[in-house]
Amino acid sequence: MYRAVVFDMDGVLVDTEKIYRKCWKENGMSIGIPEAQMENVCDRVAGGNKTSNARVFKEIMGEDFDYLAFRQRTMDLFDEHVEKYGIDIKPHVEDTLRFLKEHGVKIALATSTARTRAQQRLDSVGIAGYFDEKVCGDEITHGKPEPDIYLKACGKLGVNPDEAVAVEDSVNGIISASRAGLCTVMVVDLIKPNGITRERAYKTFYDIEDICSLFE
């Protein structure tokens, strides 16, 4: 029986991946990266951190590409969108979190997003109180797809990785969680299942509520 669930945030709990994708694409196309290429880039950077994502862009644009400035412009576009339209919670998230709490399951967050931003997003959709622990992107050295964030989350919860379920929507996240030794589940958002996710994910669901079946 699993004792804990460690959730990614963007695209799993809050419906922000589509906003990120819109802003990455808009910014990339503004400097001449074709839309089809930006779609591929968005798949590759989802779930990653500054370091891993910088490598992706430099591979495409060259080593002299000023990724940090480009990233900041993308985040500015993201913030403008959120200020105007807000953030939505993903379907059935709160029901799922409530079910886990009622069954005594420990809950943690493992997100590449910085803590201040992550807390704001969880607060804005009213689910921050469900989490026993949080590990955020600015609190680790090696982000996804490295296993560090999931290992740290399990350590903070006081469980072994093989006693925990990881819930992810990105290839980087699935690689990270599976490397850490968690039972990795993909809940599909924008990125569709592929060879890597099928190899590394124990289950693929299209509704987050389906993870409750692992605890019944």
Tell me about this structure.
This protein is an alpha/beta fold and 216 residues long. The protein has helices spanning 17-30, 35-45, 50-61, 67-85, 93-102, 115-124, 148-157, 171-180, 195-200; strands spanning 4-7, 106-111, 133-136, 164-168, 183-187, 203-205. Strand 5, helix 9 (195-200) and strand 6 (203-205) form a beta-alpha-beta unit. Helix 1 (17-30) packs across helix 2 and helix 1 (17-30) packs across helix 4 (67-85). It starts with a strand and ends in an 11-residue tail after the last strand. The relative contact order is 0.18. This is HAD family phosphatase.
Tell me the layout of helices and strands:
Layout: E1 4-7, H1 17-30, H2 35-45, H3 50-61, H4 67-85, H5 93-102, E2 106-111, H6 115-124, E3 133-136, H7 148-157, E4 164-168, H8 171-180, E5 183-187, H9 195-200, E6 203-205
Parallel strand pairs: 1-2, 1-4, 2-3, 4-5, 5-6
Helix pairs in contact: 1-2, 1-4
Enumerate the strands of the largest sheet in spatial order, edge to edge or round the barrel.
Answer: 3-2-1-4-5-6
Query: How widely separated are the two ends?
Result: 9 Å
The counted number of beta strands is 6
By secondary-structure content and strand pairing, the structural class works out as alpha/beta
* Total DSSP helices: 9
Give the low-pLDDT segments. Answer: none
Secondary-structure element order, N to C? EHHHHHEHEHEHEHE
Assign a percent range to the helix content.
Answer: 40-55%
The largest pleated sheet is described as: 6 strands, parallel
Q: Which of globular, elongated, flat, extended, rod-shaped describes the shape?
A: globular
Protein name: HAD family phosphatase
Organism: Coprococcus aceti
